[in-house]
Amino acid sequence: MNRRAAALAAIAFLVLAAYAIVRAIRHEQGVQPAIVTPAMDAQQEISPSIAGRLKRFFRERVTYGDRSGRPKLIALTFDDGPYPLYTPLLLDELRTLGVPATFFLIGRDAQQWPELAQRISQFGNEIGDHTYTHPNLDAESDGAVRGEIVDGARALAAIVRAPAVYRFFRPPHGRYTVATIRVAQGLGYDTILWNDDP
C-alpha cells in the first residue's frame, strides 16, 4: 500500500472514530434521566457499567432529527430560596403569564420566610424538597443525606400543605452520587434532575 492510500485510510478511520464518539456522547445525553423514580435502578440510570452503556447504546433509540410531531411541553423548575427579593418578583411574573412551576425550596430558608413559601403554594405552584441546609450531597454519608431530606421535608410540611414535599426531591447544586439517589428512593422520592439549565 502506498503512502497516499495509507493516509486516506487513516483519515477515513479517524473520521469514523470521531463520528462514533460524537454519536455515543449524544446518545448518552439523550438517555440521561430527568427523573429517577423509586422503581428505577439508580446505578443503571446514573452511572451504568461499560456493559450497561453498550447495551443502552445498541438497544435504546434516540432520534436527533425532526421533533415537530412531539408535544411541546416543559417542566419549569426553580431551586433554592425562598428569597425575599427575587421570589415575589418571580411569582408575580409567573402569575401574570399563567405559568405554574415547581419550586425546590431549602427547608431552613422556608422557615426564615414562611409567608413566601405559603405564597408559592397558594399560587398553584408545586413545592419540592431541596434539603434542609443545601449541602453538597455527593460529599455526605448516607445518614447525612437522609437527615437532610427528612429535615427539609418536615420544615416545608410545617409551613405549607404540599404533597410534593414528600414526593419530589432535587439534590443541591446538581451534586449527587448513586448512593444519594438510592437514599432518596428508599424514602419514596422521585429525584428530579433536569435536561436543560439556562
* SSE arrangement, N to C: HEHHEHEHHEHEHE
Query: Which term fits the overall shape?
Result: elongated
Work out the radius of gyration.
22 Å
Classify the secondary structure makeup into a structural class: mainly alpha
Strand percentage? 5-15%
Q: Give a count of the beta strands, DSSP E runs of length 2 or more.
A: 6
Q: Biggest β-sheet: count, sense, barrel?
A: 3 strands, mixed
State the share of residues found in helices, binned by percent.
Answer: 40-55%
Structure description:
This protein is mainly alpha-helical and 198 residues long. It has 8 helices and 6 strands. The strands form 2 sheets. Strands 1-6-5 form a 3-stranded mixed sheet. Helix 8 links the parallel strand 5 (168-169) and strand 6. The longest helix has 29 residues, at 3-31. The model has no long low-confidence stretch (mean pLDDT 86).
Task: Briefly say what this structure is.
The chain is mostly helical and 198 residues long.
List the helices and strands and how they pair.
Layout: H1 3-31, E1 35-36, H2 42-46, H3 50-59, E2 77-79, H4 86-97, E3 102-105, H5 107-112, H6 114-122, E4 126-129, H7 142-157, E5 168-169, H8 178-186, E6 190-192
Parallel strand pairs: 2-3, 3-4, 5-6
Antiparallel strand pairs: 1-6
Helix pairs in contact: 7-8
Keywords:
198 residues, three-stranded parallel sheet, 6 strands, single chain
